[in-house]
Amino acid sequence: MSAQAGKHLAMYNFGLHVAAYESSAVEGFRLREAANFEAAARAHGFIGRSGYAGEQGSFCWGEQVFPRFIRGSGFASAPSSLSLWADIEALMAFSYSGVHADALKHARHWNVRQSWPPLVLWWVDAGAVPQWRDGAERLEYLHDHGASAAAFTFKQPFGPDGNSVEVDRRRVKDIAALNAQGQSDLLAHVLALKV
Q: How far is the C-alpha of 133 from the C-alpha of 150, rounded, in Å?
């Protein structure tokens, strides 16, 4: 299922670290963060991502807010990202291969076990920029109501027309192979990092 003209896929994810961002317990996450952002920027089908308040060179897509799952955690902020992609296959290829796959492999060391969906996907008009609030609200909606055209996951995807779709797994593999060609230096770097 390739992208329909005039639509982009928005992705928001949210988690909680096992300790403060600056702590040694999540050093492996910190060490990989810049490489993950660079891998996304080089990935086929990547449109853009929100920066964070105070981050140089990246525009923040509205005030960063968090879903209700942060309550009681003791944290005022938490690891989350907001990005735009050409389609589901492009995002899936980035997420589950290469540099980002290495981070996912080790995430259990840095993040608490979640009782909420790790991410939410939804379609936006090309040229529209989702806000952090949109992502937090849609993640809560997905948790409360399950997958729908308004808020879905890789396991239960919907197309830009609002109908459920099947992910084109062959295309995901092809895109992952394309990404690997342009990210070998980043992958070698992260594979040498401590967990």
A: 14
Residue 175 CA to residue 183 CA, distance in Å, equals: 12
- Tens of pLDDT, residues 58-86: 899 999 999 999 999 999 999 999 999 99
Residue range 75-134, pLDDT digits in tens? 999 999 999 999 999 999 999 999 999 999 999 999 999 999 999 999 999 999 999 999
Per-residue model confidence as pLDDT tens digits over 2-43: 445 699 999 999 999 999 999 999 999 999 999 999 999 999
Which tokens belong to 19?
A: 């300790």
Question: Cα torsion for 110, 147, 142, 13, to the nearest 10°?
Answer: 30
3-state secondary structure 135-162: HHHHHHHHHHHCCECCEECCCCCECCCC
Q: Is 2 exposed, middle or buried (0-12, 13-18, 19+ CB in 10 A)?
A: exposed
Which one, of 47, 68, 37, 57, lies nearest residue 124 by Cα? Answer: 47
Number of helical H runs and strand E runs in the chain: 5, 4
Alpha helices in 64-166 (DSSP H): 88-95, 98-110, 132-145
Integer CA distances (angstroms), 91 to 45, 55, 96, in order? 7, 23, 9
CB 86 within 8 A of CB 8: yes
